[in-house]
Amino acid sequence: MIAFVRNVRLWFAPEDVREEGSTPDYRFSLANERTFLAWVRTALALIGGGFAVDQFLPDLRWAWRAGLALALLGAGALCSLRAVNHWMRCERAMRRGEDLPLSRFPAVLSVVVAVVAVAMVVVVFVGWEA
Questions:
Q1: Rounded Cα gap, residues 46 and 71, in angstroms
Q2: How far is residue 13's CA from residue 88's CA, in Å, rounded to a whole number?
Q3: Residues 6+ apart with CB under 8 A from 103
Q4: Which pTM does this prediction carry?
Q5: Per residue in 68-117, pLDDT tens?
Q6: Could you write out the DSSP letters of every residue in 4-43?
Q7: CA-to-CA separations, 7 to 48, 60, 72, 82, 99, in angstroms, rounded
Q8: DSSP per-residue letters across 37-66
Q9: For 67, how many CA atoms within 13 A lie in the half-sphere containing its CB?
Q10: How far apart are the two ends of the chain, measured CA to CA in Å?
Q11: What is the rounded distance in angstroms from the CA atom of residue 10 to the CA atom of residue 14?
């Protein structure tokens, strides 16, 4: 828990990460940043999908619509938070010469998106007002 709190503090003071280890090759730092931006784009797409489900499927039963929209919005929020946390953890690992951190988050996110996709397929086949 202490490491997580330290990482959250570093989110807002990235200059403090320079105190750790040595500066990695800038190409690795830039690749880490590109990965971060890809996760943020994924988060924005999930959030947009959540709003689209809520706004553009008014004939869908409220429980289905709210459930699917909230699943996508929640996944987007978690994805954006995970992006910055993973960016910071990778940056620190590179500076320390450690292995990059492993994560189960991509698998969890993929399962959530797959479950929402299957639910949408069911909605399409069963009909809007089931």
A1: 9
A2: 10
A3: 82, 86
A4: 0.83
A5: 999 999 999 999 999 999 999 999 999 999 999 999 999 999 999 999 89
A6: HHHHHHHHT-GGGGGGSS-PPPHHHHHHHHHHHHHHHHHH
A7: 28, 41, 26, 11, 17
A8: HHHHHHHHHHHHHHHHHHHH-TTS-HHHHH
A9: 12
A10: 45
A11: 5
